[in-house]
Amino acid sequence: MAPWWQSAVVYQIYPRSFADSDGDGIGDLRGIAAHLDHLGALGVDVVWLSPVYRSPMDDNGYDISDYTDIDPLFGTLDDIDTLIEGLHARGMKLVMDLVVNHTSDEHAWFAESRDLASPMRDWYIWRPARAGHEPGTPGAEPTNAGSFFSGPGWQFDPASGQYYLHLFSPKQPDLNWENPAVRRAVYDMMRWWVDRGVDGFRMDVINLISKTYPLADGPANGPGGLCYDPSIVVEGPRLHEFLREMNREVGLSAKELFSVGEMIGVDAETARSHTDPAAGELGMVFTFEHVSIDNGPTGVKWDVVPLHLPALKANLAEWQEALADVGWNSLYFENHDQPRSVSRFGDDSAEFRVVSAKTLATTLHLLKGTPYVYQGQELGMTNAGFTSIEQYNDLESTRFFAEAVAGGGDPAQLLGAIGFKSRDNARTPMQWDASANAGFSTGTPWLAVNPNHTRINAAAAVADPDSVFHHYRRLIALRHELEVVRQGRFALLLPEDERLFCYTRTLGEEVLLVVANWSSAPVVLPSGLPDRAGAEVLLGTHDSLSDELAAWESRIYRLA
Ligand code: NOJ
Q: Which of 57, 331, 351, 488 could be joined to 369 by an S-S link, Cβ 3.0–4.6 Å?
């Protein structure tokens, strides 16, 4: 029998931006609990909560200072118990974010580790300055590893004269997974949450936990000779072992808990090795490959090139095929780290926003794997439209901007790239209704609400049977209904076509054909596609059955 999560659809909540119950301008757990009917109406099975643990909020909660407490901004442990109960009562499950590649520098473990003599010194990755360099001076970092958030990946600690590794911000020191006591502490914490009632974990950058020692210099490809090549830090030699150990110790497989590992730089073959049930590691992984297709030649996300549809199709097809028999896919276009898909891959103009959001949804949800809906995606929410760096909160965007401007970059050009790709595009408050602050908060929202909330909001979408929301609802229902959607074999059609995304899903005698026009102009379906005579349209964006697809039109056929 297929595990339960192979039939599930996940809804991701970024708590800070979902719903604010107490008027402080920041979303919270009670706000979420007040909106469970929205999730019930959509029909999702699982809620993944981005971090709500106690945190100084340097990276909005991805810097945790206490894994077994809730940050007061978000509420209390009682509130999370209530949320778990509320979800379970509606037949939904709760998946917590597990951020254990690093902690906050304000975690008690790190405070203790700062002491050279402490047995906990070795819980983090400390190294002396580069030989022949004065500790603390520019270039004296132990290696040239860059941080994913720009700048060196090492921070000098004057008290001990050594550096600690932080692959993200200096306030996110990396844990030393080589130390068995660290691993035990993590597994204890995970069991504590499982005992509390959570149904699984989304594991933040989990393929960074096993590091190659000693971290060596990598190829310099960033300012100041820094190495921003993630391949030196991903998929370390003990990763499989650690994941197997975690699975065994926490009972991930034994208790049928949900697990998805976020993996930077992971390819499809490697994903299969982690999600093969025989490996006893993870249920599925998040890849970055398909959301890097519109990165330019440097490979950096800020180097934006227009989407080349054949490249996206080839990548998604490669993953569908690699995980066809062994392993499992996760399916996503959006999350709290990616811009809004309708602005990125679709057409967010007034004319085509709704239909292109629906067609992106159809294309993704008919693939094989577990689909993820990121809050607001089901409304076709768009990018933020920020034009000045002061409007941004996200440290990845602001640190990149500062570094690039200091290096002589053109601010207008940089703001264009950030406007297109920044994570804050996905983090503007959820648009509940047309009222002030979109019904998100009675206070001043921590990040500006998109002015288009007067048109694009949940109240309007739920009331309109032709909305993006109801399209998502139908797609989710279709997955629950049809085994061929869940388990059918995938075959890509017309791989070179630059406007059409077409494929079949086949299970026994049953064949579904998906045809989707990913362009803002009509396209005639070429001959050579499977015969549609007598086929039933299970879901379409338009009523027509003609051989010409309107701009952004898509259909799901069940072939006769
Ligand atoms: C990946 C998370 O999704 C992202 O939001 C975060 O900034 C980094 N990991 C660091 O935890």
A: 331
